[in-house]
Design brief:
Layout lengths: L1 H5 L17 E5 L2 E4 H14 L18 H24 L6 H16 L2 H9 L4 H23 L5 H10 L5 E13 L10 H19 L4 H8 L3 H4 L4 E6 L5 H7 L11 E3 L2 E14 L2 H27 L2 E3 L1
Antiparallel strand pairs: 1-2, 1-7, 3-4, 3-6, 5-6
Length: about 325
């Protein structure tokens, strides 16, 4: 889990806060972190997994058997973030209010178009003050990482060696698909209220029932899809990869086998129905993989640095 998180998939929402008064879980230097804070971060990660292509977060599903293991993973993640943040402070890395407000505005706009996700974060206690302080810490850690990586050189020899040793990891899967969108966004691009959403979900379920009863998918898409661009082509999207569209959408599409139609599922844009008509896997060349390989090597070197900082830090678990 830790390695993937450090690549930034849920970075903005996953730092802990200071100042709760209940029993403490761990301490980094003079900064203490409560069990309540650990639970909050765990809740954020759990909410976030539904909105990213993040199979590695599947372990965050509640289970009595693995709850303690999950908690220890979250604490380990929080400790690593904190030791980097404290080093950033020692290095006098500054984050301005303008930088924080700009990032907050971006996140606020995203949440405005996804009220369900916003509710999950509200339930986890992520209010404006929490989020802004989290952003401030996140940006400091981000700047520390950028400063660390800017002087690193990744050679052609390193890239070629990595590609040779991990060649099977550089295969690109794509699917050919059609979809029907029943939009839940109003004219101002904001999510409609709950009663209207229920009405729209019922419409999507009705369309799916029609398809399963033998209805022509393309004809139904032309007549009903709110994605007008693909709708006029019967919902045709062509071939696409996992990282080329919304993660919630591709997560569902890539579950399907050739010829299968999905159940109704929700994305920030509305209720979706997808039909996969073909799948293919292609080996990516070294040159096509070069940027990803460089990023992976830099990430590995950064993780080594994080581990080094952690070893030098005064960390106590309670």
């Amino acid at each position: 889990m830790k390695k993937v998180l450090y690549l930034g998939l849920v970075m903005v929402l996953c730092f802990s806060m200071i100042g709760c008064s209940n029993s403490n879980a761990f301490k980094v230097g003079e900064t203490e972190f409560s069990n309540e804070e650990v639970d909050k971060v765990k809740s954020i990660l759990t909410a976030t997994q539904s909105y990213t292509d993040a199979d590695y977060l599947a372990q965050f599903k509640e289970s009595k058997d693995n709850d303690d293991k999950i908690k220890q993973e979250v604490i380990s993640y929080m400790i690593d973030n904190e030791v980097v943040y404290q080093q950033a402070q020692k290095d006098k890395i500054k984050v301005t209010d303008d930088e924080v407000n700009q990032k907050y505005s971006q996140i606020e706009k995203m949440l405005d178009t996804n009220q369900e996700y916003k509710k999950l974060l509200d339930d986890a206690g992520v209010d404006e003050d929490y989020l802004k302080e989290t952003i401030k810490k996140d940006l400091a850690v981000q700047k520390y990482r950028e400063n660390f990586e800017q002087d690193l050189k990744v050679t052609d020899k390193e890239v070629e060696k990595y590609y040779k040793e991990h060649k099977d990891e550089f295969k690109e899967e794509s699917v050919e698909a059609y979809h029907i969108l029943v939009s839940t966004l109003d004219d101002k691009n904001k999510t409609v209220d709950d009663s209207k959403k229920e009405e729209l979900k019922s419409k999507a379920e009705s369309l799916l029932k029609e398809i399963k009863n033998g209805g022509d998918f393309e004809k139904i898409a032309k007549e009903n899809s709110d994605d007008k661009s693909s709708g006029k082509k019967g919902g045709y999207l062509g071939y696409f990869t996992k990282d080329s569209k919304n993660a919630q959408f591709t997560k569902e599409a890539f579950k399907l086998e050739k010829g299968q139609v999905s159940n109704v599922f929700e994305t920030p844009f509305g209720y979706e129905i997808v039909k996969v008509t073909n799948k293919k896997t292609e080996q990516k060349s070294l040159e096509d993989s070069r940027e990803e390989i460089v990023n992976r090597i830099l990430a590995d070197k950064y993780l080594d640095q994080v581990n080094s900082l952690r070893e030098k830090s005064d960390v106590q678990r309670f």
